[in-house]
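#onboarding

Welcome to the new folks! Below is a worked example of what a typical request in this channel looks like: someone posts a single protein sequence, and someone else replies with the predicted structure as tokens. Don't worry about understanding the tokens yet, we'll cover that in week two.

Example request:
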Amino acid sequence: MADRKGEAQQTIADFDPPKKRKRNVFAIACAILASMTSILLGYDFGVMSGGSKFIQEDLKLSDVQIEILNGILAFYSLMGCAFAGRTSDWIGRRYTIVLAGAIFFAGALLMGFAFNYAFLMFGRFVAGIGVGYALVIAPVYTAELSPASSRGFLSSFPEVFINVGILLGYVSNYAFSKLPIWLGWRFMLGVGAIPSAILAVGVLAMPESPRWLVMQGRLGEAKGVLDKTSDTPEEARLRLADIKQAAGIPENCTDDVVRVTKRSHGEGVWKDLLLHPTPSVRHILIAAAGIHFFQQTTGINVVVLYTPRIFEKAGIASSEHQLLATVAVGFVKTIFILVATFFLDRIGRRVLLLSSVGGMIVTLGCLSVGLTFIEHSHEKLTWVMILCIVLVLAYVAFFSIGLGPVTWVYSSEIFPLKLRAQGASIAVAVNTGTSGTLSMTFISLYKAITIGGAFFLFTGVAIVAWVFFYMMLPETQGRTLEEIETLFGKYHKWKSSNAILLENSKNDKEVVYVGSSINDQKQLGTKEQP
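Example response:
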């Protein structure tokens, strides 16, 4: 009778599939605000793509000076990268974002009012430091704030906003190109101060990173932030327990403020990261530096910075048409990065990454052939010119669907808590250093080995990158930040660690299922079987 009575209490709703978990709106809003810092870098790349031609004509600069002007910001940003990790550990992630916006604001105004080459270089020095801070802190903050179910989606926002910035820079080029040359490029550079000012004010509405708060012993504040940014109260409790364990705080400690005995301001972290790393940390460092290195050496920033020149080599003679085609590149890049954000947590990092680089290999190879064909032809080949434009668009689309966003998501989530800020600094330093080197040498490179030869070189690097990613980068989809560290340390044999984690996860689910079944039996009035 008890069994029948319990069965009678069940309704059709009890047999419905579980409802799809909604994304945390508050966490998304915070990620958007933090990631707006990336607009600063994207805008600079985009605006210099077309603006450098007007600067060269107005200030009577050589190609070498333009190369240096384009690429030097990346090297200046290394200073920001070097200080960003320690600064964010000292004053917090949120105020470091404010600092980045303020520095870039000053740099953009200096560039806009520059009256000669030296003054312009000084403006780029100041802006570069702000960019370096922004590149490090935005992915770290977003990864530390995000729940595991949405971390890939939210951590890809910095790359999304880099692309938005690039598109805005391209549009700015076209919009101000109608002005007198001496005035147009100054407006192009000067309006970059607007997003940085909005950012510096808007970021004050964001909470501090819960992981940074725990590292400072401010558990009560951290719990409040986790309650707002987690999908469920249970997830918030689990995240807090994991972070406390990583910070060396007893799990049963419930005080709002505790004294932290471990390093809390970054002391000694460089020693653990570079001088005496564990096998796991060494593998993580190689993976993070490697993915950032190959992101740049496959040619993306060269394409972004020198799109008008590439299209000129492809046969587009009109400057206006070159800028319009450049806007199309920015539009395609932005659309595909938005598409990628919705697949990072569904398909996984590895699948997107390997598919993306595979497509880049094909498009770069074909583009190399097309540009070589045009260069050795004595007549204008319209169909080859159109093909080259399509291949450039396809290349940036493949990049944006995988290698672009995955690089920032991956490097921001794989470092252990106490090494995360400084580890991200090293990865970003590799990225910007490589980007600067290529940007400062591309014109000289294609003059030495032809434009087609330069893209053949990028094709070869992309092939090496695909092999590296396949061998060295484990899948991190759905793992907590504290759990990811166990995947590393065995290099190309990482799949054995992944199998152990999968088995443990399966056992945990079975325990939860059995516990739920017993509770259901009790609620239905049935006796628990011995």
